[in-house]
Amino acid sequence: MKQNHVQIDQQASAFVEALRTQRHAHMPVMRFHQWPQFISTVRTLLANNN
Predict the structure, then answer these.
(1) Of 12, 14, 15, 23, which alpha carbon lies 20 to 30 A from 5's?
(2) Cα(32)–Cα(34) distance, integer angstroms
(3) Maximal C-alpha separation, the chain
(4) How many CB atoms neighbour CB 17 within 10 A?
(5) pLDDT one-digit tens code per residue, 1-50
(6) Could you give the CA distance from residue 25 to residue 34 in angstroms, rounded to a whole number?
(7) Cα–Cα separations (whole angstroms), residue 38 to 6, 9, 43, 48
(8) Kindly report the CA angle at 14 between 48 and 8, in degrees rounded to 5?
């Protein structure tokens, strides 16, 4: 399960980087229970780098 968290964090990081560089941001396919971690990570990354 920990590997799954790493994947979600990596996907969130790539998503945020795409938003910052004004590229199309790819939304990865994930299970519903993974969504809160993805959004939380995206929000944290956006807040930390502003």
Answers:
(1) 23
(2) 5
(3) 32
(4) 13
(5) 466 788 899 999 999 999 999 998 877 788 899 999 999 999 999 999 76
(6) 18
(7) 10, 7, 9, 15
(8) 90
Structure-token match 């993974």, residue found: 34
Instruction: Determine the Cα–Cα distance for residues 26 and 34; give it in Å rounded to an integer.
Output: 16
Q: Helix, strand, coil proportions of the chain in percent (round to 5)? A: 70, 0, 30
State the pLDDT at residue 17. Answer: 93
Residue 44 one-letter amino acid:
T
pLDDT for position 3: 63
* Residue entry with tokens 């994930």: 30
